[in-house]
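Design request, tokens follow.
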């Protein structure tokens, strides 16, 4: 869990307490500050969630790239002639597209 999520949650709870204390005491200023702290806490929490999600996506992409690298490396090592023919065919196809 990201420190922004923890800080946001703490600030949100603190803002709720501040808001309730302002209502009980009849202090409008304290109540407004409590609501503002709640909003800031929610924004921090959402930022932390987005950061966590981005980290998860980056980790998944990195894992997929590693699997693809292993697959290509193994194919090239086990079947070098097939790989050379496939590369030649792809090059020929790209060359034909360039002329059209």
């Amino acid at each position: 869990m990201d420190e922004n999520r923890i800080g946001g949650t703490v600030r949100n709870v603190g803002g709720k307490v501040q808001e309730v204390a302002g209502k009980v005491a009849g202090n409008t200023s304290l109540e407004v500050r409590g609501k503002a702290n709640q909003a800031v806490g929610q924004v921090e929490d959402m930022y932390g969630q987005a950061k966590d999600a981005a980290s998860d996506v980056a980790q998944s992409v990195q894992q997929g790239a590693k699997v693809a690298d292993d697959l290509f490396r193994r194919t090239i090592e086990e079947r070098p002639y097939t790989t050379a023919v496939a590369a030649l065919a792809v090059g020929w196809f790209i060359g034909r597209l360039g002329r059209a």
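Comment from the thread starter after seeing the answer: thanks! The helical segments are 3-25, 28-78, 80-99.
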